[in-house]
Specification:
Oligomer: single chain
Mean pLDDT: 94
Helix content: 25-40%
Strand content: 25-35%
Structural class: alpha+beta
Radius of gyration: 18 Å
Distance between the termini: 43 Å
Number of strands: 15
Low-confidence stretches: none
Largest sheet: 8 strands, mixed
Number of helices: 7
Shape: globular
Length: 272
Amino acid sequence: MTDPFHTELLKLAQEAARRAGELLRDGRPADLEVARTKSSPIDVVTEMDIAAEKLITDLISSHRPDDGFLGEEGASNEGTTGVRWVIDPLDGTVNYLYGLPTWAVSIAAEHDGETVVGVVAAPMRGETYHAVRGEGAWATGPTWSGGRALGCRPAPPLAQALVSTGFNYVLEVRTHQAEVAQRLIPLLRDIRRSGSAAVDLCDVAAGRLDGYYERGLHPWDLAAGDLIAREAGALTGGRPGERPAHQLAIAATPGVFEPLQRLLEDFGAWHD
């Protein structure tokens, strides 16, 4: 039975993700422009990223004023309750800027340093994914009338695995990532690149991918999707023996995870 405290956090995350998703979907201006850049001139933030993060933090703070925040667009507060909300208000900003549909709102709640709730809303799919630690992962949307318990795919041989990845916006890093992908492609069924880490992690959970890996992710990219993938039965990690981290994050169905992790280690996918 779900802990009432976790249920409270889940409902709040779901409401915040729903409202932010509606804002982003319905409020996108026709003349949307870049508000600022981050790691490079092609790593962009739009006015809608900023507006969505404000909506999320304002809503959560109105219910739980003493909680902490870590948000991609600057929300940072330790709080005093042991709860911290890890927020990516718009994962897949470049997709959103160009009018591509693969973007998401990602909200996770940590309690005493452990992620206990994760919600990812993908409005252009009409889908929302959620998980509570120890309670499984679920999705709602037009494909799953009434909701569906998520489970990753049965593991194929690595040569038949469909794996997704992403590329950094810093030229040196993305060049190295392309070299790693070039070495991997002959060993897999194929590689995909959606442009949203949160969506990729949920696609592993939903059985739409056999695996996913990426270098250079931040806590807000990972927190919700990692929990959803794990609760759907996927294995997640980074370099051998480590948790998903900025150096490397991997999520895959059991049977694909270990051989994929070994190849990524051999190929130096984590390279600093």
